[in-house]
Design a protein that fits this description.
26% strand; SH3 type barrels; binds calcium ion; Fumarylacetoacetate hydrolase, domain 2; five-stranded antiparallel β-sheet; eight-stranded mixed β-sheet; 2 domains; alpha+beta
C-alpha cells in the first residue's frame, strides 16, 4: 500500500500553526481523555486532537476492515497488532478526510464538534500498555564516554560492544507519559573512598536522551526476526527520557547490569510517530567498524535523521538548552536491535518498547546525559538564571524535543516534559 498520507504537497482545511511538529503529513497515534471523561484513541493535526473512535462510529473509515471497538480502547495495542496494512490504510484515510479539497467533514459542524478537540480540552495518556521494555546501549559516543568515566579511559568500549547491540531488560511499570512528575529516588550508594555503602537520596540524578520504538506482534517463540524484515514490525517512535540515578547505578550494576538506578521512571512523548511518517528522513548510520556476524548485517538506509534537543528549566526560571543531538549518530540501528533481540527466539509482542540507549553526538554540546555534559560533575553547566548544575536538582524540569525537517516537510514528536520532585515522604 502506498504512503499517500506522506504527500508533501497536501494541505489541510484545519488551521495549523506554522512550523508545527504535526502537519497533515505526520498523523501520529496516541490515547487521550476528552472533556467528557471519555478515553479514546486519537491523532493530532496542528493543535487539534482528533477522536478516531468518533470518526469510526460516524462511518469515516468505511471499507477499511476494522472491529467496531478498535479505537474505543485505552491503549493502542490492538490497533498496532492489526499490522502495517491497517496503520497505512488509516493514515491514508485521515489524510483524505482533512485534505483541503475534501468538504465532507469540513462542512459538517455537528460531526466536527464530536471529533475535534483543542489541546486544552484533552489529557494525553500512555499510548500503549508496555508489556516488555528493553533498553539498548547503541551510541558509540555515549558508551565510550561512560566507559572512560566508569571504567578505563584506555579501554572505554568493552570487547563485545562493536559486535552486538548490547541491551538489558528494564521495567515497563514505571514508564510514564510527558507531564507526570517523578520523585527523586533513594537507594544504596558507595561514597568515594568508602568500603561500606550508605542509604539516601540520589545525588547524581540524570536524564538520558533516547528514542524508543514500539513494536507489533512480530514472531513466535523460537523464531528469529531478520534484519531486512524488522521494519515491518516497528509501528513508530517516541522520545524517551530514561531517568538514571548514577550513584545508585555505579554501586549496583556489577555484574548483572542496571537495576534500581533505572527502574524508578522513564518518560515518553505521548504521540507515537509512525515509521511510515518518518520514511522521507531515512539515512545511513555509521559504517560498522568490525565485520558483523551475518544476522546483524543491514543494507541501505536504516537510520533516521531526527534532530534532538534537551532543555533544563529550574523552578520559576527560564529554560536553558543544554544539548543538541541527532538520532542518526546511533551506531546500531533498530533493525539490528530487533534481529539481535530475537536471534535466540525471544518473542516480541504488540506494544513492546525498545529504547535506543542514550544518544550522544561527537561534540560535547551534543552529549545526551548530564553525566557526559558535565563530565561526571567536573564541569558544571551554566544556566541562564546564573545557577550551575552538575546533575538534576529537585523541582528541575527536563524537556526533550525531536523533529525531522527537509525542504518540504517537518515531522516532529512534540516534547516530553518531566519535573523531578523531592524524595517521596509518604
Ligand atoms: Ca538508558
Amino acid at each position: 500500500m502506498s504512503l499517500e498520507a506522506n504527500n508533501p504537497n497536501r494541505e489541510t482545511w484545519l488551521d495549523t500553526p506554522e512550523n508545527t511538529d504535526f502537519p497533515i503529513q505526520n498523523i501520529p497515534f496516541g490515547v487521550f481523555i476528552t472533556r467528557d471523561d471519555i478515553i479514546t484513541i486519537g491523532t493530532r493535526i496542528g493543535d487539534y486532537a482528533i477522536d478516531l473512535g468518533a470518526l469510526h462510529q460516524l462511518g469515516y473509515f468505511e471499507n477499511i476492515p476494522l472491529t467496531d471497538d478498535i479505537f474505543l480502547q485505552d491503549t493502542l495495542n490492538d490497533f498496532i497488532a492489526d499490522g502495517r496494512k491497517t496503520w497505512r490504510a488509516i493514515r491514508n484515510r485521515i489524510a483524505e478526510i482533512f485534505d483541503k479539497n475534501n468538504a465532507q467533514l469540513k462542512n459538517n459542524k455537528k460531526n466536527r464538534k464530536t471529533i475535534l478537540f483543542t489541546l486544552d480540552e484533552i489529557e494525553m495518556q500512555m499510548p500503549v500498555e508496555v508489556g516488555d521494555y528493553t533498553d539498548f546501549y547503541s551510541s558509540k559516543e555515549h558508551a565510550t564516554n561512560v566507559g572512560k568515566m566508569f571504567r578505563d579511559p584506555d579501554n572505554a568500549l568493552l570487547p563485545n560492544w562493536l559486535h552486538m547491540p548490547v541491551g538489558y531488560h528494564g521495567r515497563s511499570s514505571s514508564i510514564v507519559p510527558s507531564g507526570i512528575p517523578l520523585h527523586r529516588p533513594q537507594g544504596q550508594k558507595l561514597p568515594k573512598g568508602a568500603d561500606t555503602p550508605i542509604f539516601g537520596p540520589s545525588r547524581r540524578l540524570d536524564f538520558e536522551l533516547e528514542m524508543g520504538f514500539v513494536t507489533t506482534a512480530a514472531n513466535q517463540l523460537g523464531e528469529p526476526i531478520k534484519t531486512d524484515e524488522a521494519e515491518e514490525y516497528i509501528f513508530g517512535m517516541v522520545i524517551f527520557n530514561d531517568w538514571s540515578a548514577r550513584d545508585i547505578q555505579k554501586w549496583e550494576y556489577v555484574p548483572l547490569g542496571p537495576f534500581l538506578g533505572k527502574s524508578f521512571g522513564s518518560s515518553i512523548s505521548p504521540w507515537i510517530v509512525t515509521l511510515d511518517a518518518l520514511e522521507p528522513f531515512k539515512t545511513e548510520g555509521p559504517k560498522p567498524e568490525k565485520e558483523l556476524l551475518p544476522y546483524l548485517k543491514t543494507k541501505g538506509k536504516k537510520s533516521y535523521d531526527i534532530n534532538l534537543q534537551v532543555g533544563l528549566q529550574p523552578q520559576n526560571a527560564e529554560e536553558t538548552i543544554i544539548s543538541n543531538s541527532n538520532f542518526k549518530y546511533m551506531y546500531w540501528n533498530m533493525c539490528q536491535q530487533l534481529a539481535h533481540h530475537t536471534i535466540n527466539g525471544c518473542p516480541i509482542n504488540s506494544g513492546d518498547m525498545m529504547a535506543s540507549g542514550t544518544i550522544s553526538g561527537p561534540t560535547p554540546d551534543s552529549y545526551g546525559s548530564m553525566l557526559e555534559l558535565t563530565w561526571s560533575g567536573e564541569k558544571p553547566l551554566k544556566l541562564k538564571n546564573g545557577e550551575e548544575r552538575k546533575f538534576i536538582e529537585d523541582n528541575d524540569t527536563v524537556i526533550m524535543r525531536a523533529h525531522c525537517q527537509n525542504h518540504e516537510v517537518r515531522i516532529g514528536f512534540g516534547e516530553v516534559t518531566s519535573q523531578i520532585l523531592p524524595v517521596y515522604k509518604g
